[in-house]
Design a protein that fits this description.
Length: about 120
Amino acid sequence: MRKLKLKVWDKVKEKMLKPQAISFDTQSSAPFAVSVPGRSWEPIGKFELLQWTGFSDENGIDVYEGDLVKISAVIYKTIWNETQMMFELIELGSSSKLNITSTVFGSVIGNEFENGTLTVNE
């Protein structure tokens, strides 16, 4: 079984955090609350939940959804394709996509939250 790793973007404090625990609704299995270091349980709505893709960049840094990856001179955003149920890389300023499983990774250069000036056309 593949290891599941998550990180969260705190929408209020505008910081990336590693969750200590995540609580799920017993009926819907949807995330309900998050516990982060130094704080008690808080509603999931305060956070953007980001999943590890299962891949690392050329420097061994884990690639999460929302990460910006530079391959050659091109910058891509890592997204979850709900229709195809897989992670993809979409080129910034374009609709060009790469299948993440058949891509040789470059370097993670940031993420869509901390590097908000970079945009992507989805």
